[in-house]
Amino acid sequence: MAGNKKSRFADVLFSRGSQRALVSAWGHFAGHEVAVADLVGKTLAFQQAYDWDWVKLNPRNSYYAESWGNVYDYDQYVGPHPKQIFTLVNQPSEIERVTSDVDWEFYDSQNQVLSEVVAALPETPVVQTVFSPFTVLTTIAGQPRQARSPLHGSNSTATVAALIAERPRGLANALENITLVLEKYLGQIAATGADAIFYAVTGTAHHEILSQEEFERYSTPYDQALISAAKAHGLGVIFHTCGEVAYPERFEKWQGIDALSWDHFSPANALLDAPFAPVPLGGIDQRAVKNGDVETVARQAAETLLAFADKPLLLGPACGINPIVGDPALLALRGAVETQT
């Protein structure tokens, strides 16, 4: 569709404009996430295939923990997770190892990916993924970021429950140190040319990982600090809370969130048309894309576009998909937006 993608993205995200919905999809290029050139190439090929209205970068989801010393085997994946072969925090007493002294090589490589994608797509908004400090902490400690989903290869005993019970001060200090690192990283993301961040608390809002009280103590202050930092750098904020129990209503009044993403197809979560302040991101069940159900994707896209005809919308899957060039389901999603006037 004619028109500057960056200006339309800004209109929807910041002005809550009700023009044509913007569409995108994203996912991990498992096995192609380590070398800068490989990830850049896969990202650009995926964008060229579908001409998305905005591009979400998907770095390997372990690179934060790598900067603290975790090691992974990238020849062995389970879903988007490479096998963990060393973790910095194997037991609660080791939580003090999480300082603000990290290996910046891992952030530098992602900034290089971002820089090259931005240079190659000067008229397309680019969004970098940033995990919450608590998500980073769980990865460093080899713990699940989704309920009932153990990290591949981890034998760590530094469970969230044990850290809270045995090392609450050490846990808070670790989260403060992670936040300091990510605050610096946000400045680099802005300087490298991103338009927004996709801020993911992953599945850590689930009550089986943290109670609401625990989430408000061990996640919320650090999340809000980073969202404020992102806004101070002029970055938009798309907030993602993942999983079948995601509690999006907890976040919709947080200052600084421009768009909100959650699995609104799960019966436990609010629907996409819930009266939330941020612009909704969704409309497509990622499971339908995974299953190659072109008819369902096309129907969901048409129904969502009709329901949000006079409201701002970021149309896309409710969570990540397998990013395949030439996928008929994704072609149906892209085509649905082109029927709008």
Describe, in plain words, how this protein is organized in 3D:
The protein has 341 residues and is α/β, with parallel strands linked by helices. The chain is built from twelve helices and ten strands. Strands 1-10-9-8-7-6-5-2 form an eight-stranded parallel β-sheet. The chain has a two-stranded antiparallel ribbon with strand order 3-4. α2 (36-50) runs parallel beside α4, α5 (133-140) crosses α7 and α6 (160-166) crosses α7 (168-192). The radius of gyration is 19 Å and the shape is globular.
Strand arrangement, major sheet: 1-10-9-8-7-6-5-2
Cα-to-Cα separation, first versus last residue: 9 Å
CATH C-level name: Alpha Beta
The average pLDDT value, as a whole number, equals: 96
For the CA atoms, what is the radius of gyration? 19 Å
Gross CATH architecture: Alpha-Beta Barrel
Number of structural units classed as domains: 1
- The low-confidence parts are none
Question: What is the fold-level CATH name, i.e. the topology?
Answer: TIM Barrel
Overall SS class: alpha/beta
DSSP E strands, number: 10
- Write the element-wise H/E pattern from the N-terminal end onward: HEHEHEEHEHHHEHHEEEHHEH
Tell me the β content. Answer: 5-15%
